[in-house]
Automatic annotation (TrEMBL):
Chain segments annotated as coiled-coil in the UniProt record: none
UniProt keyword Chaperone, yes or no: no
Key words, A-Z: Oxidoreductase
InterPro entries: Gfo/Idh/MocA-like_OxRdtase_N (IPR000683), Gfo/Idh/MocA_oxidrdct_glycsds (IPR050463), NAD(P)-bd_dom_sf (IPR036291), TAT_signal (IPR006311), TAT_signal_bac_arc (IPR019546)
Enzyme superclass (EC): oxidoreductase
Gfo/Idh/MocA-like oxidoreductase N-terminal domain segment(s): 48-176
Keyword Isomerase in record: no
NCBIfam families documented for this protein: TAT_signal_seq
Organism lineage string: Bacteria, Pseudomonadati, Planctomycetota, Planctomycetia, Planctomycetales
Gene3D superfamilies: Dihydrodipicolinate Reductase, domain 2, NAD(P)-binding Rossmann-like Domain
Protein name: Inositol 2-dehydrogenase
Amino acid sequence: MTHADSSHSDSSRREFLKTSACTAGVLGAASHLAASAAATSTSPNEKIRIGFVGPGSRGFGAHVKRLTMLQTQGQPIELVAVCDVYSEHRDRAAKHIEKETGHAPQKYEDYVEMYEKANLDAVCIGTPDHWHAKQTIDALNAGLHVYCEKPMTKTVEEAIDVMKTWQKSGQVMQVGVQSTSLPVWNQVNDILTSGKLGKVLMYQTEYFRNSAQGQWRYYKLDPQMNPKNINWKKWLGVEEGLAEYEDFDRAVYRQWRRFWPYGSGMFTDLFVHRTTTMLKGTGLRFPGRVAGAGGLYLEYDGRSVPDVATVVADFPEGVQGLVTATMACQDTPIKQLIRGHFGSLVFGTGEQFEGFDYIPERPQVTRDSKLKKEHIATTPVVDTTYAHFKNWVEAMVANDPAMCNNDPALGAAAITNVILGARSYREGKIFHFDDKTYTISDGNSSWADQWEKRSAERGTPNHIAGWKAGDHGSVLEEPDYMKLAGPWKNGKDPSAG
């Protein structure tokens, strides 16, 4: 379908989608969005018009190439526009789309102009982190569906703003943590909520890397990267208040993840991957308390982000999460796993799984001698990035935000965990987070106080969302000799009756 042939159909569809979005806007949560969208799926004869913002590195290799593949395979999408401040990237993306689909997309330098003029239904955002929130919110407010590369935003406050804007919009939005499209995490959640591990206590995960030249410096610099071909002021976002002006530097442009104003190093490039999947598997979301640690111990190449880091997040459900790594040693990572009182699930490393191990605790704890170590098979996915984009397209076709495997509610929770860890490292503080008001405060004794009070009152544990196992693996035995315990008031033995 050409642009001229489809203009009337596109206009009608967009008006229809805007009406649907307004109807859904009164609803405050993603689960309610699905109900409002169920009756407004896209007709098989209509095509979703998609534009790209930032089709550079991953924006080209993942966004453009996978969606081009999906279009040529018959999915009801049309890749109609590309926007980048670097002319070489604009031209490369446009040429690829034209070669594969037979239709040349429109080219833009300013995403605002593309949103206004390209007659879009959806947009893919692959720009540096500091642009994500603004470009996403502008798209949602324009009635567009959104695919935003991870991390969803640069700050916690931006993440909450994106989540709330999405909830009001009724639009379909996918955050680009492709491993959330692996079936294993829904499978893990079913196992955990069934009580197989007993009370869930901890998760740990990692993303170790190593290189001879330093992390992210393998992104090569090119003479064509210069102010003649790159709108540097626009890339920085000076007029938009996103960054302060600094002189053009090819290393900053190409390797921006090394510098705090534009990225957050491993916290948002790598930790967000593993944290998001652990949140999906456990059902955890926003933390109650976060601490970060680390330092810049080897990679003295002008970067500002650390090369060793750890984030520890404590959750109101009574679970602790840990993510750790160094960018200067890769072959001895810790294992990814989830621990419970009665056993653990061990995933090894990486994010491609054909299965994982269940390791029970000893019978003296579980009181079940029949429990044995077992390998649990899962469905492998050959190309998680392809699967993730296909999931987004299918959700747009159905106009059902709840179909996305990584929606902004999960995206905001992941950002809160990793960014508070980064802030803790940089500011030397512990942070508390209130998941009812979405507010951040400096740490104090209240986190420890609440658990100590519960123990003194002989309370019961909190559980992950969806817990179905009652007290299984969550209650301590009371030995007979504990009848001898208690304070001796006025010198009297409490066990004497």
